Amino acid sequence: MSQSKHRIFNDYRDLFWSLIPLVLAAVVLAGAASQCTVATNGPTQGQVPFFDADTALKSDARSLPFPIRNPQLPPDWVSNSGSRDTIATAGGGDVSTVGYLTPQGTYMRYSQSDATEEALSRHVLGSRYPTGTQDVAGQKWVVYTEPTEETGWIADLGGVRILITGAGNEAAFDTLAQAITVAEPLAK
């Protein structure tokens, strides 16, 4: 007769020792399938996507019913995204958005829309409310802030509302706001 333990004499140590070969086999199989990697240098920055903001904004100027501006930003601001959207709620309208990476590596974007300030702010900023104003290049910008959310600035430039938001500091907001304020609308 064999000398194995009766089931009631097994404990967690026996379970632990029986699982070790299974865990090792799983690690070997995952490594062989290239599902596991070990990084020793930490995260690295990926390639910044290219977005042709000039072409996109010219197209928006031809097809959207409101004035579109293409701000001339410093060359170290890199456009990396863009989109078009529609706000379907009361006071809504079309929205053209372009995003940039600043020289500090923060993301900033601006949206142009024929929607009302309230509809645009609710659509993009959610529950944030106005907390003050900023004057940039003679243009008043309404500032929307909330402690745990990105800041937003909105200005009415006659027939179009511009909303700036992002993770940049106040200098990044000023740079983008000034470039938008002095930009002339693109030809239709």
UniProtKB/TrEMBL annotation:
<dbReference type="InterPro" id="IPR025339">
    <property type="entry name" value="DUF4245"/>
</dbReference>
<dbReference type="Pfam" id="PF14030">
    <property type="entry name" value="DUF4245"/>
</dbReference>
<protein>
    <submittedName>
        <fullName>DUF4245 domain-containing protein</fullName>
    </submittedName>
</protein>
